[in-house]
């Protein structure tokens, strides 16, 4: 049975955290000009972080889970940047091979540490409410609110603060930005931090929405990758719109047959590359 | 003499005559040919697997060695041929003579699937889509377990030969044939065009050369070599599992082995493959498989970030620099 209200509500919610995930990827691309294939791993790291803190403390308050997942996400992203990517920035081919290997290494490491058994952990917020006749768990409501808070926060920062304008400046022209006195290294660090924080936060919600497995980085990477391409690299608005397109199609497909999970995103990615490689909203400067 | 010759062979591609190259190949063939005489059965088996793995790294090099189309989907080509062989010989009961060509044909079809993304996707996007193909294929194999045996695989696939040495020489022959193909490819005009495609595909197109033709050629050639390797591996082992031919980890190991050896070099492809298989064989006694994989992946990261050109090309460069310093090389008779 296809439940329209359910697709609508769950589509809106999942799209919001897909957007959060993809924004990080597109930000890093705009600034550093590289595609970070380890991006999906921060979701895994964030989810395991929240899970572990709950295990160790014997149950943790939602804010603790959220803070921990954001922290480990940031840690993983900054480590990717500082330890590896920064050194090979001038060779984009090496960057995407290495970041992909990093994702696989982290999968293997988590496999050794925690085993391959899928793990479940209690949702951040218990209970559910009814919206348009569809039961929505409070957990997803929280995910929706948190995602949009972050997205709008980022929007305000980029448009209204000096730091945000500096990010745009670096994205548009790194050399010129440097000449006008922008501290490039700090901007890089900031962008990777935002990217890791958002992905880690997504981890809390995504982990409860599926289950915790060492290879859970694959689908978040697939979603964020196709969203970024469909929306047009570097376009923040495009990313949010594309997240909703992919999110809704994905929800509708999974409702019809859960075995096709991920396939629409991949098809969308290939189709858009064949038909309109610059993305629906143009390959524009960061805006 | 020998040292000076080896140095010349390794360091200088330009002033060598065809005869000297031929001699180099002859030495390699002779060395590989007498190798099993000094080995126990266990190690002969390992070297057969090494030769098969070299087929995989050579196949990968055909596409990714000289271009920036880095494929993480090669296990899909190998798996396509492997599963075709397994199903055709067991469920359909076809003889190997019929099943093997059909399997390689099947690998060609699989090659088209890897090729299509390369029409428009570049760099990380191409790599990412090729990465997804084995992941999705793996799910398909598990879903169609009536046909594929699912996670447990298929057993009872007929061998080409029951004799270990025959299998060794077969694997060696296939590897040398593939190596020679790659070697000729890199030295032909096609090789030059591949390097141009790497620099700028648009520029190649603007200069009136259609890169599509060359891309199709290398993807199909690569699929054939991967198919031969996959089909041979399956008949040699007599069984098939997702892990042995299709699993994404296989693709990753191929890429890492080829990069450690040296992208775009035949000796690098073979050396990298041998290194990987021997590493696995040695480490098996000390380390469990996840740790072993983890270490190998880490090694891959170290190589890609610190020595992206790989061991063989680096060694060649080192030897060339040294022979430049010492003049024309070692002239004293040895």
Shape of chain B: globular
Unreliable runs of chain B, pLDDT <50, ≥5 residues? 328-334
Would you tell me the overall average pLDDT of chain B?
Answer: 85
* Corresponding CATH architecture of chain B: Orthogonal Bundle
Query: What is the CATH topology assignment of chain B?
Result: ABC transporter involved in vitamin B12 uptake, BtuC
State which percent range the strand residues of chain B make up: under 5%
CATH class value of chain B: Mainly Alpha
- How many domains of chain B? The number is 1
Q: In sequence order, what are the helices and strands of chain B, one letter per element?
A: HHHHHHHEHHHHEHHHHH
Strand order of the largest sheet of chain B: 1-2
Number of strands of chain A: 2
Produce the secondary structure layout.
The complex is a heterodimer of chains A (287) and B (334).
Chain A: H1 4-32, H2 39-57, H3 62-84, H4 92-114, E1 128-131, E2 134-137, H5 138-160, H6 162-172, H7 174-179, H8 184-209, H9 218-231, H10 236-256, H11 263-275
Helix pairs in contact in A: 1-5, 1-8, 1-9, 1-10, 2-3, 2-8, 2-9, 3-8, 5-6, 5-8, 6-8, 9-10, 9-11, 10-11
Chain B: H1 2-11, H2 18-34, H3 41-64, H4 74-90, H5 96-115, H6 123-143, H7 145-148, E1 154-155, H8 164-187, H9 189-199, H10 201-206, H11 211-237, E2 239-240, H12 242-245, H13 248-261, H14 266-283, H15 289-306, H16 311-325
Structural commentary:
With 287 residues, chain A is mostly helical. Chain A has a domain at 16-214. Chain A contains eleven helices and two strands. In chain A, strands 1-2 form a two-stranded antiparallel ribbon. Chain B is mainly α and 334 residues long. Chain B has helices at residues 2-11, 18-34, 41-64, 74-90, 96-115, 123-143, 145-148, 164-187, 189-199, 201-206, 211-237, 242-245, 248-261, 266-283, 289-306, 311-325, and strands at 154-155, 239-240. A two-stranded antiparallel ribbon of chain B has the order 1-2. In chain B, helix 3 crosses helix 13. The A-B interface holds A 34-35, 37, 84, 87-88, 91-94, 96-98, 100-102, 104-105, 108-109, 111-112, 218, 221-222, 225, 229, 259, 262-263, 266, 269-270, 273-274, 277 and B 68, 70, 72, 116-117, 119-121, 123-125, 127-129, 131-132, 135-136, 139, 143, 252, 255-256, 259, 290-291, 293-294, 297-298, 300-301, 304-305, 308.
